[in-house]
Recover the amino acids of this structure.
C-alpha cells in the first residue's frame, strides 16, 4: 500500500506562486508515475502534470510554462511549483501514484490518491 499526503495549498493573489508537496509512504519503491490532478465542482478531475520514474514529465496545456513538477526520491516527495497563478487555477489539487509501468492521463490509471489540498487564486 501507498499513502499520499499533500500540503502547501492556500490563498494566493493572481500572479503569485505556491509550491505543493506530496509525501509518499508505504510501498514507495514500487511507485512508477506520480501525478497532480485538480478538480473543481461540476467538472471532471483533470491532469495537471505527471512525472514518471524514468524522469519524463508532461503537462496540461493550460499550465505549460507556469507549473513545474519535480520528484525528490530521497525524501519520497513530489512537488508542484505553480507560478503566475490565475483565478482559473483555483481547485482542489490531488496527488496520485500508480504502481503500473508507464503513464496515463486517465485518472483510473492511478491506484493511490491523497485527500487533496485547496488552492484558491483570488484578489
Amino acid at each position: 500500500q501507498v499513502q499520499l499526503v499533500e500540503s502547501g495549498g492556500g490563498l494566493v493573489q493572481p500572479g503569485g506562486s505556491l509550491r505543493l508537496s506530496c509525501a509518499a509512504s508505504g510501498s514507495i519503491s514500487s511507485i512508477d508515475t506520480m501525478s497532480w490532478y485538480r478538480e473543481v465542482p461540476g467538472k471532471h478531475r483533470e491532469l495537471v502534470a505527471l512525472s514518471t520514474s524514468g524522469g519524463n514529465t508532461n503537462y496540461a496545456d493550460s499550465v505549460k510554462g507556469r507549473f513545474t513538477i519535480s520528484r525528490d526520491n530521497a525524501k519520497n516527495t513530489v512537488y508542484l511549483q505553480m507560478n503566475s497563478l490565475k483565478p482559473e487555477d483555483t481547485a482542489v489539487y490531488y496527488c496520485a501514484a500508480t504502481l503500473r509501468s508507464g503513464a496515463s492521463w486517465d485518472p483510473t490509471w492511478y491506484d493511490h490518491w491523497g485527500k487533496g489540498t485547496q488552492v484558491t487564486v483570488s484578489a
